[in-house]
User: What shape does this take?
Amino acid sequence: MNDETAMRAALLRSSSDAATRVFTTILTRSPISRIDIARETGLSQAAVTKAVSPLVAVGLVDAKLSLSPDGRPGRPAHPVAVIPEAMAMLGVKVTIDELVGVATDLTTRVLASDRMPLEAHDPATVADGIEALCRRLEDRIGEMAGRIVGVGVAVSGDVDTVAGVVREAALMGWSGEEFGRQLSARLPWQVTLENDVRALTIGEHWFGVGVGTGSFAIVTIGRGIGSGLYVNGEVVGGANGVAGEIGHLPLAPRDRICSCGRRGCVEAVAATAAIEETVSRAHGRAVTVDEAVQLAHEGDPAATAAFQEAATLIGTAIASLVNLVGPELVIIGGEAVSNFDLFEQSLRDAFQAHAFGAAAKCRIVTRPHTFEDWARGAAAAAICSLVDSGKATPGWAGSAPPLS
Ligand SMILES: [Zn+2]
Assistant: This one.
């Protein structure tokens, strides 16, 4: 990291709560006037001006837009804007088959992207792969490489971001892995470990469909069923790092066993593997999900029923979520969105059947997220932990002894 970038990062890390709110507002709403920043943050205009000055001085925010023609400081009604190239971030999404990485600027605009296959799933192999992928991305972004501040890594499962621990990741077969520490020992940047759906939610909240939406939920369908919640101005992390695990709501029949070992979870019926298993049993041979999709499109009764059963459970789970939390919007993402026609009717019917009163007004939209979008979410999570002083220096970062 070059000196200029280090100064910018130090300023953000040491910012007061008020200054952090001002920067976050400029970051996500640029260009924006100081009057509007004051309105958004509830701070006085004097407090906003005080917070903006150092951001301009270190080159994070551009106030040229607000200068008078004669070069004097402009009026508060004139806009200021974030300087996207002031910093770079790396984001990596860990999938079961490969690592997907992006290098982005401060607004998560992608500067470079790359992928790397995963030969094995043990944490050391995955950490080595992430290091190699980050180095490749670093090489590809020219002088922006000197401005990389952090790397966000998104893993599915129960992730403790503050402790840097993957407590449980069934797909990877991990339990209680101090993965943040392992990554910190390999990489020269601040590492942020985040649950993948929560990372996607942070990305959508700051730079995607969530901008300007007071509350929303992301529900991902595919290999797992997950959700991320944005409520009352915050991405919900949960006191124990677990929140919005709708895949493990016990809404399915008791005889269905989930990959988490419990009975009757939504995932035990609605996850890709469960659909494969149901259709395979009906046909007396191994059927892949792609084949199941094709069979359902051809009208095969067993495949059609399997998707309908999955969709009904997902719709019921979304209704439960909406009844509890009351978001104005639910965004359905994940790899199975590409076959949403097989889910849509049963899902919407189940949602309407179980949504209580005005909760049924909640809009449900689909959004196909690529794995690069998930990696961008990881980069957004890294920006979030840089800016959010509560997460800026996790207990394990920097103090971790190098692992052999
Ligand atoms: Zn489960």
The pocket of zinc ion is lined by residues 248, 258, 260, 262, 265, 267 (CB under 6 Å).
